[in-house]
Amino acid sequence: MTDSDTETISVAEISDGPGGEGVEEPGTTVDLPVVDILTGRGFVTGKSGSGKSNTASVIIENLLSANFPVLIVDTDGEYYGLKQEFELLHAGADEECDIQVSPEHAERLATLALEQNVPIILDVSGYLDDAASDELVTEVAKHLFAKEKKLKKPFLMLIEECHEYIPEKGGMDEAGKMLIKIGKRGRKHGLGVVGISQRPADVKKDFITQCDWLVWHRLTWRNDTKVVGRILGSEYADAIEDMGNGEGFLVTDWSESIRRVQFHKKQTFDAGATPGLDDFERPDLKSVDGDLVSDLKEISDEKARQESRIADLRQEIDKKDAKIRQLERELEEARDLSRMADQFAQAMFQKAEAPYRGGDGRNLNRPTEKQAALGEYNEASDGDVANAAADAAAEGGDGTENAGDTPPRRPLEAPSGPPWPTHGLLSESDEAEADGAGDAGAAAAPADDESWMAAAEMGDFEPAELHPAPGAESRRDVVDRMTAIVNALGDVHHGMLAHYRERGISDPLAAHVAAGETGDQHLAYGRNRSLRRAGFIRHAGRGKYEYALPDLVSDEYADLLGDDELRETVAAIEASFVEEEADGE
């Protein structure tokens, strides 16, 4: 047996009092075997102010004086006073620590402790996030356990407030499971653990009953004294309530007796003492060798670089996400416009299927003529895109329209020929007739609905410039034509138009939400623009729009309709979107 196997540390003296009679003479020195303390399982308990932290510090001071390294998990930041006499690495989250550490430092901390004999205070009191401190404790404990399987070097890990890690009630997290594992299997590897707690009733009993040595300081709470009674006996449960500061029952596997002892007072600064009225004076603390923390600082620097890089990447991702959302909105608007265009085209094609003025007309069931008509429609739509850009410039790039000061678009000047573009929708004889009418300066409306729709689709004229002369169309023709335009709009546009009809005056965002859509300003104003260009609403100033369908119908007949006729005509057109809204509800 080597000297180190029999080496002891002196920590207390036998005390005179209930529960300690007849064991040893009061004043007898109490020694603890170093190897059993370093590799065993210990538990120190007592209410606040009873001396439990002093007892732990006395044991640690003796071990450090004998050059035995330890690692202290300090939950309250009260062990840094040991640095008054000893070189310890104070690692934690506060600036007062020698080094700020995170779980990435765990392996290096374990290496310093076991391979370079560096005592460590792992101060977790400064971590605002309990999950971060728990992860740090877990990782350090894992690396200590893994390294000790090979090194088998006597080493002690002390855990303050151990009930937070190994509670009697409730589940344990990874840190608690790892500490229990060390308590059960660490001894054969040389890794010991001692838990400190002021509430033995809250500590897992499986841990307490497996300990090789225990210290019971003053306890007064009934649940805690019950624990003393179950483990030590009722006479000790009664006596423990009257113990003095630093006094406690010492129970060890290597001694068959229960000794009442008075522990020595710690020699280093008591950072855990209750503050008094005197000025607090922090003592001079021993600094740790800079070479010991160089690797830790490199880990910190690398972690900082990674966090900076992660922050940059997150910023880039946020920008890309914003761009994606913008493109999705634009895509949705483009889909709306595409659906509208398709529906407009279908309405045009359906009318174009009938022979025009007794001629052959077009048969759109024939693929070649249908394709030609589509080409002409797309050509007309190109002009509409340009006009849409002009609208966007006039209405502002932020999704809000101007206050109505911008003058309206000037309609394109009519070339020699008919005052409305026909784009091949007329037969040759009708084209000649239209040319003659244009040469004569006639202002009559085109005789067919198709040319009116083509002109409207091109966006070259506002609806007011497309009114037929009085008597050019029957009231049924106007209803059919306007109903076709309404039907060419989507369900969202119908809902918005119904909202304007109900409110009279409103704003695009409110109309968009009323139609069952989101509060996306970009989509709301885009869809609102389609209603305005069709003449169903008009700008009322200050970002508001008003319902304009009745006025539009009245203008179609140069105000010649009577009130009843006007109401009937408007109601017939409104049925195309009001009924749909009612059905939806």
Quick synopsis:
This protein has 585 residues and is an alpha/beta fold.
Helices and strands, with pairings:
Blueprint: H1 3-6, E1 8-14, E2 29-33, H2 34-39, E3 41-45, H3 52-65, E4 70-74, E5 89-92, E6 99-100, H4 106-115, E7 120-123, H5 130-151, E8 155-159, H6 174-185, E9 191-197, H7 205-209, E10 213-216, H8 222-231, H9 234-239, E11 247-252, E12 258-263, H10 290-352, H11 367-395, H12 428-439, H13 449-458, H14 475-488, H15 491-503, E13 505-506, H16 508-514, H17 521-533, E14 537-541, E15 544-547, H18 549-556, H19 563-584
Parallel strand pairs: 3-9, 3-10, 4-7, 4-8, 5-6, 5-7, 8-9
Antiparallel strand pairs: 1-2, 1-12, 10-11, 11-12, 13-15, 14-15
Helix pairs in contact: 4-5, 5-6, 10-13, 10-14, 10-17, 11-13, 14-19, 15-16, 15-17, 15-19, 16-17, 18-19
Describe it for me?
The structure is a single chain. The chain has 585 residues and is α/β, with parallel strands linked by helices. The protein has two domains: 11-264, P-loop containing nucleotide triphosphate hydrolases (Rossmann fold, 3-Layer(aba) Sandwich); 318-584, no CATH class. The protein has 19 helices and 15 strands. The chain has helices at residues 3-6, 34-39, 52-65, 106-115, 130-151, 174-185, 205-209, 222-231, 234-239, 290-352, 367-395, 428-439, 449-458, 475-488, 491-503, 508-514, 521-533, 549-556, 563-584; strands spanning 8-14, 29-33, 41-45, 70-74, 89-92, 99-100, 120-123, 155-159, 191-197, 213-216, 247-252, 258-263, 505-506, 537-541, 544-547. It has a twelve-stranded mixed β-sheet with strand order 2-1-12-11-10-3-9-8-4-7-5-6. It has a three-stranded antiparallel β-sheet with strand order 13-15-14. β11 (247-252) and β12 (258-263) form a beta hairpin. α10 packs antiparallel against α14, α15 packs across α19 (563-584) and α16 packs across α17. The longest helix has 63 residues, at 290-352. The termini are far apart.
